[in-house]
Amino acid sequence: KSHRMKKLVKDGSFSIVVDLEKDKEYEFKYFMDDSTWLTDAEADGQKTTHFGDSSNSVVKV
User: Fold this and answer.
1) pLDDT tens by residue, 16-30
2) Is the overall model pTM greater than 0.70, yes or no?
3) Fewest CB atoms less than 10 Å from the CB: which of 24, 31, 56, 57?
4) What is the C-alpha separation between 50 and 11, in angstroms, rounded?
5) What is the spatial distance between Cα 25 and Cα 44, in angstroms, rounded to a whole number?
6) Beta partners for 4?
7) How does DSSP classify residue 2?
8) Is residue 9 part of a domain?
9) Distance between CA atoms of residues 37 and 27, nearest Å
10) Residue 57, Cα to own-chain centre: how many angstroms?
């Protein structure tokens, strides 16, 4: 499922609040400029996708 982030006027960064279930791991990526997928270097980890040629960021809640 995708979620649109809001751009913060103050510094140009982006923000989002998503309700997640406790004691689970979630994979995610950022989709920028309608063409580029980015992982988060500050995530809890990285996990190789089932395609084997890229990775997703992981957050543990």
Assistant:
1) 999 999 999 999 999
2) yes
3) 24
4) 36
5) 9
6) none
7) -
8) no
9) 13
10) 6
Cα–Cα distance measured from residue 10 to residue 2, given in angstroms and rounded to the nearest whole number: 25
User: The tokens of 24 are what?
Assistant: 């689970």
How far is Cα 5 from Cα 13, in angstroms, rounded to an integer? Answer: 10
Domain range for 53 is: 19-60
Q: Can you name the residues that pair with 46 across neighbouring β-strands?
A: 57
Q: Residue 34 falls within a domain, yes or no? A: yes
Residue 26 lies in a domain: yes
The pLDDT value recorded for residue 6 is 93
Q: Is residue 1 predicted with pLDDT exceeding 90?
A: no
Please state whether 9 falls in left (phi above 0), alpha (psi between -120 and 50) or beta.
alpha
Give percent above pLDDT 70 in the chain.
Answer: 100
